Amino acid sequence: MISGTSMAAPHIAGIAALIKQKHPHWSPAAIKSALMTTSTTLDRAGNPILAQLYSETEAMKLVKATPFDYGSGHVNPRAALDPGLIFDAGLFTSSL
């Protein structure tokens, strides 16, 4: 099974391109917000996302993942297309 960042990056880039196509005026920060706020820490079966844990004997077992393992969670592309609320970043200018 191939997994990890090398497999996640092209999938997320493709989903980001779909979001940009639907919302052409959204900034990269808005697209990131849509992806992050609509993701979930459950897999498609409704179970918690699991991480691989290796012991000193190289035996592998699955344990409940932490935010360090899954980041924002399992991406939901359909929800990201219409997230409801997005957080955008921009320049802050002061009138002082």
Note the main attributes of this structure.
single chain; 96 residues; alpha+beta; elongated
Mean pLDDT: 88
Principal-axis shape equals elongated
Please report the distance between the alpha carbons of the first and last residues: 56 Å
Number of helices: 4
Structural class: alpha+beta
Unreliable spans are none
Would you count the extended β strands for me?
2
Largest sheet: 2 strands, antiparallel
Element order, helices and strands?
HHEEHH
Record the strand order, biggest sheet. Answer: 1-2
Characterise the protein shown here:
This protein is α+β, with helices and mostly antiparallel strands and 96 residues long. It is 39% helix and 10% strand. The protein has helices spanning 5-22, 28-37, 67-70, 77-81; strands spanning 50-54, 60-64. A two-stranded antiparallel sheet has the order 1-2. Strand 1 and strand 2 form a beta hairpin. The chain is elongated, with a radius of gyration of 17 Å. The N and C termini lie far apart (56 Å).
Write the layout of secondary structure elements.
Blueprint: H1 5-22, H2 28-37, E1 50-54, E2 60-64, H3 67-70, H4 77-81
Antiparallel strand pairs: 1-2
Summarize this structure briefly:
This protein has 96 residues and is of the alpha+beta class. The protein is 39% helix and 10% strand.
